[in-house]
Amino acid sequence: MFLGIDLGGTTCSFGLLDENGALHHEIEIETRQHDGPDVMLPRLADAARKVLASTKNEAKAVGIGVPGPVKHQEGICVYAPNLSGWKDLPVGPILSEKIGLPTHVLNDANAAALGEARFGAGRGANDVLVITLGTGIGSGLILDGNLRLGASERGAEVGHMTVAIDDKRGSAGNVGTLESVCGRDAIVWRALRALTWGRESILHQMCPDLSAMTPRHLAEAANQGDDVAQKVWMETASYLAVGIVNVVFTVDVARVVIAGGVAQVGEPLFAPLRHAVAARTSRLKFDVSQIVPAQFENSAGLIGAAQWAREQTENLAS
């Protein structure tokens, strides 16, 4: 077995992965993101040892997915914007010493992609793009069956791809990105803009406090035929399709897995998305039925982190 750790800004999950992709002895602790690494890492190690004790120390290695860019060979988290003090932090070496097992570090979006590719909705396909839609947009790319990280381990960052050159939203000088037009806040903003223009919509009744609107409200409204909500999803899908098509034409992936909270809205997003991708890939004859929702709602990152430990262990042994 291999221990996976999925470190988030609010909670941190632990679990043991068997060879069939099943998780065992899962626990969750509070992250306490403002504690700093000197406090947080010993807490993570303590929780890890509790899980490992349930296996009579049969686990071979540990994998941890962290919310930021990493240097996996050195086990370093370059920075984690939501975790205080996590800059150039040797997470792998520190946890290896405290836990007593080799600890392998991976970006959390890549961990989620690996989990879906090996055991979830990407299983059976050698070339898979996994996109996680939430407040931000993360992604991971599997080519020829292997997770591709790129020269600086920041490859396949589809969320930072420019898809709307006339849009001024974005950060760090990179505007019109997929994240800036398809992230959760952008989707809700699109609806609020239409409502402030006086458009009639059942959203007024469904969500009297417009500041509390979520993509789920928009999905429910779209399913009831609401024109504003349907157009929001069509516009969102058109931008997302551009990002997907760019990857399809560049590396010829066979399957696209859409994960994250926004993806859970279902067909209000997937129906116009498949239509928009089909319109742009007619020459390539990309099978849009291969644009599918993720199988794992919350555990893909945990599974992927443990699987990363397994694959790194096997690579070192070969």
CATH topology of the largest domain: Nucleotidyltransferase, domain 5
Distance between the termini: 18 Å
Helix content: 25-40%
Largest sheet: 5 strands, mixed
* Basic shape: globular
Alpha carbon gyration radius: 20 Å
Low-pLDDT segments: none
Strand order, largest beta sheet: 3-2-1-4-8
What structural category characterises the helix and strand content?
alpha/beta
The helix-strand sequence is EEEHEEEEHEHEEEEEHHHHHEHEH
Could you characterize the architecture of this molecule?
The chain is an alpha/beta fold. It folds into two domains: 2-113 and 298-317, 2-Layer Sandwich (Nucleotidyltransferase, domain 5), CATH 3.30.420; 123-293, Nucleotidyltransferase, domain 5 (2-Layer Sandwich). The chain is 40% helix and 21% strand. It contains ten helices and 15 strands. It has helices at residues 37-53, 91-99, 108-119, 178-182, 184-196, 203-206, 215-223, 227-251, 267-280, 300-317, and strands at 2-7, 11-17, 23-30, 62-66, 70-71, 76-79, 87-89, 103-107, 128-133, 137-143, 146-148, 170-171, 174-175, 255-259, 291-293. The strands form four sheets. A five-stranded mixed beta sheet has the order 3-2-1-4-8, sandwiched between helices. It is globular. 44% of the residues are buried.
What would you say about this model in short?
The chain is α/β, with parallel strands linked by helices. The chain is 40% helix and 21% strand.
What keyword list fits this structure?
five-stranded mixed beta sheet; 2 domains; alpha/beta; 318 residues; kinase activity; Glucokinase; 10 helices; Nucleotidyltransferase, domain 5; 15 strands; ROK
